[in-house]
Structures are given as C-alpha cells and as structure tokens.
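Task: complex structure prediction.
Instruction: return structure tokens for all chains below.
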Amino acid sequence: MLPIGSHPALHPVLEALAYAAGYAVYRLSRARYGDVVAEPQRWAVLAAAAVGALAGSRLLGLAEHWPAVRAAWESRRLFALMVSPGGKTIVGGLLGGWLGVELIKRASGIRRRTGDLFALPLCVGIAVGRIGCFIAGLADDTCGKATQLPWAVDFGDGIGRHPVQLYEIVFLALLGFVVSTKADLPEGARFRIFLCGYLAWRLAIDFLKPQPLIAGLNLIQWACAVGILILGTTFVVDLRIKRNNLHEQVYG
Amino acid sequence: MSKFMADRSLLAKTVTVFAIAFGIGLGLCGLSYVLPSSDEEFHTDWLSGVSLLIIVLSFLGLVVTLPIWAIRGIIGSSTEKTSGAQTLFGDSEQELKDKDQPPRE
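Output:
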C-alpha cells in the first residue's frame, strides 16, 4: 500500500496547470490543423463553453450534495454555498459546456462542427487536473473504494484504495491517442468519440467510487447515461439527414 | 471602455477568463471537505483565502461582463439581421467560404 496522504491545497494549482496545458495543446492543434470557424466565432464558442462548463460543473457538483444544498436553502444561505469553495464535477462541465456551445452556435448561425479542436486539449487538461485530484486525496471526494490490490494507495486514513484518478489518466492517454489519429474522420467525429468515450468511462469507473447510489447508479453515472443517450440520438439523426440528402442528390 | 464593449472577441475572451478563474477558485471537486461537518483532520490554509478572493473577484467580473457580452450579441444580431451584413458574434459562413476561395485572376 503506497502512502500518499491528502494535500487539498495543491488541487487549484494543478487545475490551473490543467487549463494552461489544455490551452497550449489547443493553440498547437489550431495552428497545425486550422479551424473551421473564424477567430471571433471561435472565441464566442470558447466563452459559451467556459460559462456552460462552469454552470454544469457547479450544478451537478452541488446536486451530489443535495442535503447540504437543501439545508443551505432552508437557512437562506444558498447564495453563500453557491460561491463557496468546493463542489464541481468534470462530467457536469463537459455536458454544460457542450450545451453552451450548441446554444451559441444556434444563436450565431454557426453550422460547422466546432468540437474537434477541443478533443485532444480536453484529454490533456483533464489528465493534468486528475493529478491534482489524486494529490488532494480524501478531501476531493474522487478517491476509490477500498481494495487489497498491491497498487492500492493510502490517502491518510489507513485504508488501501483504488487509485481511480491514475486509472483515468491512463485511459485519457489512450483516448487522446485515438482522437488524434490521422484517419480521415467526418467533421465533429473526434469530439463525439472523445465525449462518448469519456462518459462511458465514467459510467464504468464510478462503480469503484464510494458514492451514494440512486437506483444502482450515482448521480454522475446517471448524467453520463443521459449524455450518451443524447449523443447516440444526435448521431442517428445526423446519419438519417445525410442519407436523405444523398438520396435527394442521386434521385433528385 | 467603449472600444472594449464594441470588441466582441475581447468581451468573449474576458468572459472566458472569468469563468475559468471562477472554476479554479472553487478548488476541490468534492464539497464535503468544506462543509461544517467535514473531517477535522484537514485544515484550511492560505490557499483557501486566495481561492475565496479569486471566487469573489471572478464572480463580480462575470456579473458585469456576461450580460454585456450577451446584450452586445443580441443587439448585434438584430442590427445585422436588418442590414443583412453579418451573423452574430463574427464572420458569416459565406465570408469564411470566400476566404477559403483562391483569389480570382
């Protein structure tokens, strides 16, 4: 059992590094592969993604602690809770960011798929951020269940746990490799592969986390399931639209 | 200030920075550590004060810039729709297509 301890103060430092690393990879990717939208539109998309991610991350993060939210509401301290530290989740951030981007695209008439440039930066950013979660240990609420495996880690409570954050970093390295393939993929496919892959991963790996369950799944797993369902539905709808367009082109 | 408000890219960048700063300021993913019933084993430190400062400043920044960005976008959208000059938040797709076309000789 590896003694790691819990160091919550380092979480924001690693998170800042995660954003910096993600942005650096995004700049490199944009310079290398170009962009499907112009600079002002890209910044509108980025701003919508950031605001949507913040809202989604915070909402789902607080929803995980529903009793605390209800207590804050009853004591009229909900606003204080909303702007107090702690309580966010990557899955909520991804889904909220996705929704934000779709809304801004609809409002601004952008019809191109803009997510491909985010796929690899998100893999890198989340992986770096997860180092912060790992170092933060028990305080972060993202640690794994108890295990007797030889690579179990002790976050300071004397219990050997699954290092789920490290499992996720390995998975993100593989996902990053997949989404950065040179294969000729349709526009938007890289982002869909990333999002579907990550949500499926969280749906599976969260069984190794000691979170309260609702009908067999925790709240984040339910959010992942809904996200995958929406992704699958939009994929089928897009496929039908493309088939219809092709049919019209061939048969007039 | 007027130039700042007129430049939608700059506004979008500012909103992005404030949103990310707020996210970083929130700190931990979990909430149980900061709740009153949390384990006394953990201690707050100087970074908690910094986090709170970042949260307050970025929240105020978002409260100011987010509505301006949204209103600027809506106004821009309505004026551009009547003039038919541009789409909201930047270049239209036609302009982008034109940019991609090789120069005519």
